[in-house]
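Tokenise the fold.
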Amino acid sequence: MSASVGSEGTDPNLTPLLDLVLQLIMFFMITVNFVRVDQFDDAIKLPVATSAVAIDSSAEDWIYLNLAADGTLAGALTNVGLDTPEKIKVHLMQEKVNLERSARARGKTGEIKIVIILRADKSCKYGDVWKVLDSCQRAGFRYWQLRAMTRSTSLRAPEPRWLAASTKLNEILL
């Protein structure tokens, strides 16, 4: 008896294809986590606001700054040593030059709109927030936004310190 070679169908070996797909999934999961670390710090507890505005969609780029409760920059900038307003200004000027250069390489002309997104902890002093915003202004940034949680995304009521700071909010809640 002779064996027939063409009568049986052969299944393709999908193991290399599955290995490649799993490697791509792992790569994208790791990359997404790195981007999130630069933009958000879970240790920052944002203040609660009664109304909020969405991030400016007309901007070409954004720079995220996380301000901890003690007034220092947190997140990816923790180990950079930005402890004075002048160091913050120099760092932001370098960031601005890099973002403008990359925008020009992508073909953008005219003014490049870069927005500073400041995520300040709710127990941070106003003076520390002002120090960072002043450094942003002296570095040449014209657009900035403060991040806050809206009442719909907050699971807890605001702390009494926040209530005491805003009498209008006190009247609404009491």
